[in-house]
Amino acid sequence: MPFAKGASARPQGDRYMLQVDQRKALYALLAQLFSYPDQQLAETLAAEKTRTLFALLGTAPPQLTAAAVAAELPAAYTALFINRLGGVAAPPYGSVYLESGGQLMGETTTRVAAWYARMGLRPENVGEPVDFLATELEFLYFLVVREETALQAGDAAAADNATRDQSRFANELLFPWIDTFCHRVSSDASAHPVYRQAAELLARFCAREQERLQRLPPVPRSNSRHKESDL
User: Fold this and answer.
1) Cα separations (Å) of 156 from 55, 118, 140, 150?
2) Contact, 225 vs 157, CB < 8 A?
3) Most Cβ neighbours (<10 Å): which of 20, 143, 197, 225?
4) Nearest CA to 164 among 204, 219, 230, 205?
């Protein structure tokens, strides 16, 4: 992942909540699935860990050989997300769904960029707008790693801050458009099964994450670390 390196896990009491290492792994997997396919994706799809992560959310993992990944997915990815006669079914950019008229590179894109800058990050996907889905998932991976690292250090306050950053970013800039995006993928008649399965996993994971983050106790506005004007 371009934003951070991983660590290990913490148990959580609620049986419906995912452990921190599971959340981290799911963000990493989904970021890879929605990036342009390469040989590393073929290795990921063949891994037992990937099957475990799909099963964790009750979805079937893709069944695709390395040869099929190389032969089928680049064209399938391009047609679904980049360029197709008549327009692509599911542009993977938040601003398309959040801005009036489906504007690319709008005000919400600026807000995403502000989040990255505040964390001192420069996305490696320089050829893509900063609200590219895979990059936003990588950013949430980074925030989960911050949470995990703080927990391992016994710093509950820092872990809470990292969790609240996840909540603010996802609730404002990812969750509001992800259901529409996933529906467009799953309902596109020509979408490759791998991307339909990836969209189902993404939708289920985001629903689980939204539920988890909604359980955070409110923080008094006067105690907030970030001003709304900062982001």
Assistant:
1) 30, 21, 19, 7
2) no
3) 143
4) 219
Tell the burial category of 157 from Cβ atoms under 10 Å away from its Cβ (0-12, 13-18, 19+): exposed
What the chain holds in terms of domains, given with CATH numbers, is 20-221 (1.10.3480.10)
Q: Per the structure block, which two tokens stand in for 104?
A: 């690319």
Predicted TM-score of the model (pTM) = 0.87
Take residue 218 and report the two structure tokens written for it: 């409110």
List the one residue out of 210, 10, 1 whose CA is nearest residue 125.
1
Lowest mean pLDDT among 87-101, 154-168, 182-196, 198-212: 87-101
Report d(CA 228, CA 59) in Å as an integer.
Answer: 37
pLDDT digits (tens, 9 = 90+) for 131-189: 999 999 999 999 999 999 999 999 999 999 999 999 999 999 999 999 999 999 999 99
* Count of CA atoms in the C-beta half-sphere (13 A) of 191: 23
